[in-house]
Amino acid sequence: YRAMDGVDYVVHAAALKQVPAAEYNPIEAIKTNIGGAENIVNVAIDRGVKKVIALSTDKACNPINLYGATKLCSDKLFIAGNAYAGSKETRFAVVRYGNVVGSRGSVIPFFLKCKEQGVIPITDPRMTRFWITLEQGVNFVLKSFERMQGGELFVPKIPSMNIMDLAKAVAPECEIKIVGIRPGEKLHEYMISEEDARNTVEYEDYYVIQPEFTWWSKDKYINQNGGKKLPDGFSYNSKNNTKWLTVEELREIIKEL
Asked: Which string of b and e fits 27-48 if b means at least 16 CB within 10 Å?
């Protein structure tokens, strides 16, 4: 509780985020990702924090693994925190994005290590992922603090990459070994499902999934903030994305790590 004394803004980024680890240690994943979210919501309200943003993941959209399921629960807790706050002024929102380039346990450090052995393991050549740099992620969170009213789930428009292109960018001379998809993995990740799209507003470089509070007016939100509704059947995933990173662009990103 003391950690939030005098604090105005909180970014909740703590999580057990390794998909295989969560599959094999579900109790710890639930305690950290769901129980931890509940703790943050309660303490932020009790200590009078002004705004809280929780970092989510594309794996929370239509989850098939435990990590994604725990983050979906976490997202729901933070959105509901706006109702739990009652007469308090604490507001909660969520930012959902894809893989952060070069983050701990991510694929680039793994591929660089495998490069030394001369063999790059690939789960499936068709696999795609959303990609965002750490700087882009931080800037999007800061902008979301300015935009949020409480209850929104913000989704940036970011590029996708194909896993084979990444392997070519990291180690073009290495042998490729197909090892199969790991437990809980998807071929393609979703940021906005068809169901989410019904409540989503599109802007130039981001989307806002609006909450389904009884007191929330979707039309009023658009009138005040602009944006447009999405067409029926819309979804935003790493396969149907219109922005793609080339092998050369991936190389440049890797050089900057």
From this structure: eebbebbbebbeebbebbbebe
Whether the Cβ atoms of residue 61 and residue 196 lie closer than 8 Å to each other: yes
Q: pTM here?
A: 0.94
Catalytic position from the list 17, 51, 59, 168? 59
DSSP codes joined into one string, 234-245: --EETTT-S-B-
Rounded CA gap, 74 and 61, in Å?
12
- Read off the DSSP letter of residue 128: E
> How much is the pLDDT for 235?
98
Q: What is the pLDDT of residues 115-134, one digit of tens each?
A: 989 999 999 999 999 999 99
17 belongs to the catalytic site? no
CA 252 vs CA 101, 247, 249: distances in Å: 12, 9, 5
Measured CA to CA, the distance from residue 103 to residue 40 in angstroms comes to: 23
* Total structural domains within the chain: 1
Which residue range is the domain that position 122 belongs to? 2-255
211-214 long-range Cβ contacts below 8 angstroms, 24+ apart: 211/79, 211/82, 211/151, 211/152, 211/153, 213/82, 213/83, 213/151
3-state helix, strand, coil in the chain (%, to 5): 40, 20, 40
* CATH code, domain with 216: 3.40.50.720
> Which residues, in sequence order, are CB contacts of 152 under 8 Å at separation 6+?
93, 94, 144, 208, 209, 210, 211
